[in-house]
Design a protein that fits this description.
It is built from six helices and no strands. By secondary structure, the chain is mainly α.
Amino acid sequence: MPKRTKPERALPAKTPPGRKKTRLSPVATRAPHHGPATGEVPQAAASFLSTLGEGIAPYPIRGNEPYMNPAQKEHFHRILLAWKKDLMEEADRTVHHMQDEAMNFPDPNDRATQESEFSLELRTRDRERKLIRKIDEALLRLETDEYGFCDHCGIEIGIRRLEARPTATQCIDCKTIEEIREKQLNG
Ligand SMILES: [Zn+2]
């Protein structure tokens, strides 16, 4: 029988706290096949929305309703606020966790482990803060009617792309070109 390795403790979790792994049920991915093609919800959009605490359904696009009409703007307003709320709650949990644990380890080795765990959590918090700032910028663009349009070429970013990446400021073409350019610069 293989020797059991001794259990390691205080290792940081593989997935950062609060980042839920979501799995789409087969029912959710198989949309009924009627209505315009724009009504189909790609998995990326549906799966991001399902990670939100409030669980927001993809926007039901009707016929040829105008892009970024009040109902659509309200939809993204809800998404951005729900996302921000989730991130802020997550940040709160991180802080409380660190406060709870701060005095628990008199042993220097334990403290070292704990410190590396803390630095991981601090990096997570830093990422959350940046994301929250991006969300605030997106909320501002909603107010000034700039939200949903590519800031490079001005075309519509698209409901489904925005549902997958609500802070997107570029259309998929401009984003792709930018990524290729970055790759060329770095490689
Ligand atoms: Zn563009």
